[in-house]
Amino acid sequence: MIATYNPYSLLEKKILVTGASSGIGKSIAIECSKLGAKLVITGRNFDRLKETMSLLTGDGHILKVLDLNDTDNLQEFILDIPKLDGIVYCAGIQKTCPTKLIQRVDLDEVFETNFFSIIDLNTTILSKKLLNKEASIVFISSTAAGIVAEYGNAIYSATKGALTSFAKVLALELIAQRIRVNCILPGMIKTPLLNKILVDEEQLKKDEERYPLGYGNPEDVAYAVIYLLSNASKWITGTNLLLDGGLTLK
């Protein structure tokens, strides 16, 4: 009995992961499947989603191509998914721009993907009662959400700050149903997105020196997500879990 006990088990839990075609979302889906979860994975790129699907442990998983910015497809999307025990909102984009050069079109683009589309999907799922009792919702936010300021990162920071604030209120509104809502705030993670932000190898090395434990890996975020999806965190809601490799200790 002791040998098989695992409070972090996700056995038979049905979990939706957005942005599962690459990076953090892909890792979350893979690691959750190893603990017995049945995944619904979404993203815009079918070929990359297929690759994620091929790496999932177990069977019974569902692949759904979905552009979260296309609200017309949300109703069709939810017709084919089961009632869920967990959701991980991981889709997002980055745009670097000095504050003095920010245009409304830049704000619209990043807010649409990082905030509005997530809220649209979440509202649709809640309105159709697609969450089981005691389900867990996890938003992947960022240390940029009011924890650490970076030059040129105002738009991205604003979207993540909005998402984190939204999650807190959502946690309050869903607590009567025993549905938990939490955020994870990662620092810099080694993903393809990192190379778009810092393209120079020397720049990357210098930036990583700010982190006493170095840059994080996608799996580091995935393990934190597993904790918040599992029964091990059944007494935790409305929190922001900081994953920053010691960045804010300085």
Written overview of the protein:
- The chain has 250 residues and is α/β, with parallel strands linked by helices.
- The chain has one domain: 3-Layer(aba) Sandwich (Rossmann fold).
- It is built from 8 helices and 7 strands.
- A 7-stranded parallel beta sheet has the order 3-2-1-4-5-6-7, sandwiched between helices.
- Helix 1 (23-34) packs across helix 8 and helix 4 packs parallel to helix 5 (154-174).
- It is globular, with a radius of gyration of 18 Å.
- 38% of the residues are buried.
Descriptive tags:
single chain; 250 residues; alpha/beta; Rossmann fold; seven-stranded parallel beta sheet; 8 helices
The biggest sheet amounts to: 7 strands, parallel
Unreliable segments of 5+ consecutive residues = none
Total discrete domains: 1
What is the CA–CA distance across the termini? 44 Å
The computed structural class is alpha/beta
Helix percent band: 25-40%
**How would you describe the shape?**
globular
Q: CATH homologous superfamily - what is it?
A: NAD(P)-binding Rossmann-like Domain
Q: Identify the CATH architecture.
A: 3-Layer(aba) Sandwich
Concise synopsis of the structure shown:
The protein contains eight helices and seven strands; from the N terminus they run E-H-E-H-E-H-E-H-E-H-E-H-H-H-E. By secondary structure, the chain is an alpha/beta fold.
Write the layout of secondary structure elements.
Blueprint lengths: L13 E4 L5 H12 L3 E6 L2 H9 L7 E4 L8 H6 L4 E6 L14 H24 L3 E10 L13 H21 L5 E7 L5 H6 L3 H8 L9 H12 L10 E4 L7
Parallel strand pairs: 1-2, 1-4, 2-3, 4-5, 5-6, 6-7
Helix pairs in contact: 1-8, 4-5
